[in-house]
Amino acid sequence: MRFDAALRLARRGRELPASPSLLHDLALFEGDLARDTGDAPGSVAAFERALVHAGDDAQRCAAHLGIAAAHRATAATDAGLAVLDRVEPIASAAGLAAASSRAAYLRGCLQFARGDVAASQAAQGLSFWTLLIFPLLFTAGMSLVELMVALAIASALPGR
User: Fold this and answer.
1) Residue 41 and residue 47: Cα distance in Å, rounded?
2) What's the CA dihedral at 12, 18, 21, 24 to 10 degrees?
3) Buried b (16+ CB within 10 A) or exposed e, 128-160
4) What is the rounded CA–CA span in Å between residue 119 and residue 91?
5) Which among 89, 52, 50 is positioned nearest to 70, based on CA atoms?
6) pLDDT tens per residue, range 67-91
7) What is residue 121's predicted lDDT score, i.e. its pLDDT?
8) Percent of the chain beyond pLDDT 90?
9) Are 78 and 40 in contact (CB under 8 A)?
10) Of 34, 39, 53, 112, which alpha carbon lies 20 to 30 A from 5's?
11) Among candidates 138, 73, 50, 74, which has minimal Cα distance to 100?
């Protein structure tokens, strides 16, 4: 893929009239392309535009995570960790396991860049648990709740 051509087209696309959701997605794409081509300030600016157009928590998380990833690319650890401090409660409250996992991964990367290996290992271990184990536990818990409701309904039916 020709990243430079794609980046030019993404920047042209933001000048066209579009819905906020489409502008959000285009800004995310532009931010990823800018980061991948080494333009970290352009990446942060694009993700900040995505944040302006975000319509829900998932879109806000994606924009914040893009900003944190751009700060990781430039070793701006304090700025990246500050962004993660804002995004992690949003992702957790909204039940966005993938966003929570990516935030934990980025936190680990930024902590490692600071030289805090123990914090890095703790954060990266959390990303595994957040992505794989917590959704499984949630699903199992909901299945038990549904079973209890079904048993309560069945016992309340006439003739039982």
Assistant:
1) 10
2) 20
3) eebbeeeeeeeeeeeeeeeeeeeeeeeeeeeee
4) 20
5) 50
6) 999 998 888 888 999 999 999 999 9
7) 54
8) 34
9) no
10) 53
11) 138
